[in-house]
Amino acid sequence: MVTAGPPRVEDPDSPRRDKRMSLGAHLVELKKRAIISAIALVVGMIVAFVITDPVITLITEPIRLVAEERGDQSQVELMFSTVSSGFDLRLRMSIAIGLLLSAPIWIWQAWAFIVPGLTRKEIRYTIGFVAAAVPLFFLGAATGLFVMPNIVKLMAGFVPEGAAAFYDASYYYDFVFKLLLFVGVAYVLPVFLVALNLAGIMSGKAILKGWRVAIIVSVVFAAIATPPADVATTFLLAAIMMVLFFSAAGISMLFDRRRRKRDAKLLPPEPSA
Length: 273
Known about the structure:
The chain is mostly helical. The chain has helices at about 25-50, 50-60, 60-70, 85-100, 105-115, 120-155, 170-200, 205-210, 210-225, 230-265; strands at about 75-80, 165-170. It is a multi-pass membrane protein.
């Protein structure tokens, strides 16, 4: 005689529950989260506009160092070539800094929209995701800020003796902004991989199998973020990105192992004859 085992109890925190939403509900959800993110961005921009002076002083420090080394301040300066370029620079800086200041809010809104209907456990994971992503982004930006003076000094070394080095304000800002943004995003990407693993979208083994692609992407990303002549900085950034990638793969594999143990406990016992 065959007796059936007890019915399987579904884990209320399982990410495999049905969380389908209609297209209209998705659009309403997207609109709500976009509005919240936009309000946070505007508030961040207002605050950022007030602090642009110390930020400009900070990012132009490499120019002053180059001027000191060349011994002639008049030959190394930040140049504003149009009447409105000063205001344009501050406005663009306000947008960029506003994005950074409002990052905890719009990152949370973006992730909550991508993975709707979060369980209590997934909410804890999401909070952990934001808590890890934001500091890592700022750490990456700080790394870019740390290597930036060396990059500027290296590039200034190619200016011929006796020639003036006038840095266009708009171009210089683009260089600094892209460097900080690229390095900051590079530091956050491994956190996204772990988050996708927690959501059940990618396994740890699947992440690890992409190590060859990760190496190529890391080198290309680092090469874009740094000048071609600064090979040492390029490989340093690429190495940091690879360490973060393998850390993300290792953490994801640990989570997969815990998930398999949890699922094994939820399985009903084998039917007895």
